Amino acid sequence: MVRTRALGIDPGSRVTGFGVVEQRGYDLVYIGSGRLAPGDALPFPARLKMIYQGLGEAIDQYRPTEAAVEDLFFAKNAKSALILGHARGVCLLAAENSGLPIFEYSPRQIKQSVVGYGAAAKEQVQEMVRLLLGLPERLPKDTSDALATAICHLHTQGSTALRNGLMDRAGPNKDLEL
Q1: Structure-derived torsion over alpha carbons of residues 30, 85, 158, 62, reported in degrees to the nearest 10
Q2: Active-site residue list
Q3: CATH number of the domain at 4-170, out of 3.30.420.10, 3.40.50.1240, 3.10.20.600, 3.40.50.2300?
Q4: What are the sequence ranges of the domains in the chain?
């Protein structure tokens, strides 16, 4: 059986969450998660370095096969969006340098996939992640968001693989009901 192990990343300059989930048949299995929190006392470039190194260590430890990163949302404050963009770029670089295929999902896509509602509250995401992965308690929001990103990726890739498999069996001119 081919197993997909997804690293979900919730980028942030103050706290970057990561979570690893494995797809085993129809089951989602929690592998591990964590938070990279360099703190405000460090200069911004040092915080970015810590995020990059921390993700590299997580990739080495958990050996994901793919990476899923939360995409930028529209921010009212341009400076905040730029800072988040830097942190996100470091996350993408860590995954790319590790040779992982990278997939990107909007916050709305992630919430829709995990909760069933694209405008779900953070607490709803936390609870659904807990339930889907059989965790004893809710994890911090950034860790839950990272795990939700991994879950979204596994759901999305599973649906795509299923559709592609059905299309291959049906042929190019067949109508399918999914």
Answers
A1: -30
A2: 10, 70, 142
A3: 3.30.420.10
A4: 4-170
